Amino acid sequence: MVCRxxxxxxxxxxxxxxxxxxxxGDFGSSVxxxxxxxxxxxxxxxxxxMHYGLAALGENTCLACQDCDETIDEEALVIQGASQLERLRxxxxxxxxxxxxxxxxxxxxx
Length: 110
Prior knowledge:
Elements: H1 2-24, H2 27-38, H3 45-57, H4 74-109
């Protein structure tokens, strides 16, 4: 019961986040992922947010989620992961700025 209430409380903000990162990131792949996940109720909120963020970066795999084997250069993986985190941080800054501007416009013209 509580999980269902949380699902419905999260439903709109998570989808709005997906559209917001699509606007500030790679729009084409973000909208494709957003539309494909729209009807999937079995995807958790965390997975959905990860897919939205990675699609906005133009990527399809999370470096932190990959299993490491002996053939992968760990130093290169750390550098790639740090780069991915930095791009996620700048994308989130742009998303926050977009949200502030949207709310300001709603207040001014609403």
